[in-house]
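User: Show me an example of a complex going from sequences to structure tokens.

Assistant: Sure. Here are the input components:
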Amino acid sequence: MLASRRRLRVITTAVALSCSVAGLSACGSRADSGSSASSGSGGSAAAAPAGSAAASTDTGSSAASSGGSSAAASTGSDASGSAAAGGTTADYKTGLKIAFLPKQVNNPYFTVADGGGKAAVAELKGTYKETGPSDASASSQVSYINTLSQQGENVIATSANDPNAICGALKQAKSAGAKIVTYDSDTTPSCRDVFINQATPQGLADVEIKMMSDEIGGKGKIAILSATPNATNQNAWIALMKADLKKPENSGMQLVTVAYGNDDDQTSFQKTQGLLQSYPDLKGIISPTTVGIAAAARYLSGSKYKGKVQLTGLGTPNQMRQFVKDGTVKEFALWDPAQLGYLAAYAGAALASGTITGKQGESFSAGKLGSRTIGADGVVILGPPTVFQASNIDQFKF
Amino acid sequence: MAPDRTGTLRRSLLTWDVAVVVVLAVVIAVASGSVDSFASQRNWGFLLLDLVPIALIALPMTLVVITGEIDLSVASTLGLVSAAAGKMWADTTLPLTLIVVLCVLLGALLGAVNGVFVTRFGLPSLAVTIGTLALYRGLAFVVLGDRAVADFPTGWTDGAVGFLPGTRIPWVVLPLLALVLVFALVLHATPVGRALYAMGNSTDAATFAGIDVARTKMWLYVVIGAVSGVAGVFWTFRYASARADNGNGLELQVVAGVLLGGVSIFGGRGGLLGVVAGVLLLGTLRNALQLDNVSADALTVVTGGLLIVSVLLPNAAAWLRSTTAQRSRRAGANPVTPASSANPA
């Protein structure tokens, strides 16, 4: 029971994250906001062994150290990733006190993300700390921010439960000398120095189309299994994928329909079934939602279409491990939370060392991830999503 | 046993009040010595800001608990008022001052609903307010949904967390102190206060003494609702965010502070000095442990443990005293009722 509830949190968090990717702050601001997603997790609970959801800090940090290079290898587009492995930490002050304040402690997603931060802080020879509320409520983070600023932390890396409620406390911490990095969920830009954004909508759309194209040889009918028809983030990604499909190199693929599983496990399962009956010559399905891809994979793995119809999209390794191993799914993508925490720690250290100030155009070196440049509004992009395949999926425990 | 009671209770009450103040002083002294940056002005500023809504609601809660009732819906009232404030500010053109007034009135109305169920229908307040705890929180989500309204004028939001000139003491502490004084006077120096204790000890006796029990309780619920409304308004501006989940779980901290302050959950005894010390003790302890890097889960354990201790200890003390009193009486001039002799210590 406990294990399945934890996994449910991972799933809902991932859904909430997807919201924040599209800049829909109200949607992504609460870790427990994916109420529709939670109803669908019952079925997918069978997807991963019970113990694996509770990833420990240690596995998180090992994922971080291996994550940088494997992401680069599998996507082939992160050129700087492996080249700069073991990159320079000379620009950084040592002995920095770097604290991570997640939305909620004991949430597996953040345990992995903060584990990545811990690994980075160790490389930087600083002092790492993770603290935070046990409930993901808007205002309970405030007293933790006050405490951290009181303790003289040099860097506070936080994922905001509410873009505004913690703003005042962050500003006070800033004026007391702390550098503020937000990761995963942003605050109002004036309240922090930089925001580490896990992915861009364009990056997510590109990787999904590329995976599908690789899997079906760039030719054939495909369908999209989305969440709800009015999900802002989903619609943004779908629009970008449609634009990608218009490009000449993707002209062989034809999008026949977009189905909506409402981020509900049962509905997504039935919609997958319906798609395959309506389009017997369907070659592939893209599901840019963690609930949808898990349900579709479960249907495919038990049907005659297994291995014949390709499935890809956005999912979490714990949900999808079984289906990758049994050959139903070749590859899928998501950002690696451990890299997110890792980058947040480096960005904080760069701020605290005076290497950067958070202005657009400044760049800093982020250890194994190579160098990153600050974009508009102080946003740093983590990079292309990580692609998970049979060869690397066991390195990721979230 | 009955004639002996008031004397014993007064003594145990006195010692409990004093004990909480002493423990508070010890915690502050130890924390100042051993926890880095605890004793700074800045930290006290943060600590007081966090405690204001709890202390605020604890004042009328003390009165309610002394009458033998309870109100668990206070945090949901706070949330609903906050949500209503956000809704009115975002979707209407009402001026903010009027919204604040309407919010306090809304709080009073929500309290009155509790009061009607408890006094007119004679339902147990525990059941009624558990019901409204869920109901008001649900309504808050109906009003505002998952949305957060944050575009309040910065004059108001910065004002809520402002300090007294030249210090790091939040100015809201001043009106809070004034309210503490008002509630202390009403409880300890007026016939109304004495009536509350009488109601807590025996509703029948209070009724026979000419106290309108239902009417008094009704007003208490209106007051605690209104104060929760004020706390909701403060919360909204302090965090610059009107949300339906504001103050979630706050009722437990309020009740913990009140009980730790020596107010009997069964009604009839306790005082405001103890409650103020109890709220401060809980807050100080949490703050010191947090600064000492104790995890959030351990903090919850500490709060829960203190709550148990605060209910257990005074009762154990009273029980011990009454047993020793009976024993010495038995030893002195023998004949005792069979009931008490069947219960050897």
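The lines above are the inputs; the final block is the predicted structure for all two components together. Chain A touches chain B at residues 26-27, 29-30, 33, 105-106, 129, 131-135, 137-139, 142-144, 146-147, 150-152, 162-168, 176 (CB under 8 Å).
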